[in-house]
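Quick start: load a record and inspect it. Here is Transposase:
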Amino acid sequence: MAYIKGEDRNQIIMFPECIDDYILEDNPVRVIDVFVQTLDLKELGFKKINPNAVGHPSYDPKDMLKLYLYGYLNRIRSSRRLEHEAIRNIELIWLLRKLRPDFKTIADFRKDNKKAIKQIFREFTKLCDEWELFGKELVAIATIMLMLATMYRPR
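Running the structure step on this input writes:
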């Protein structure tokens, strides 16, 4: 009897025409995307909302917030891990529209907007609870993870 064999790595295949085909309709990243798009970040106290007139273009704060919300829900705290996941994880590739922020940019965004991120995560947790998107246990764990992540202070 033979083993189950994988496909040839050198075989040319036809991927779906868009990344959206890989993300199911009920995937939590879609909730993150819609939630963040509805927010007024300036009103919520986020810094560097308006793009710079000169210099290298910056990342949209909404994209960075999506990355953090995804990280908190999936217990990914490290900015270096988030950078790595943005390159290899199809959900994050979809959520960030193929953007690949580096770890320093990710860490600076968290440092500059710590209070606002904390407030947003509370709102997101309430929304998930109201819509019954996740079990109560997961919402409680996510809230605790947020608290731990935002209270972390390097020495």
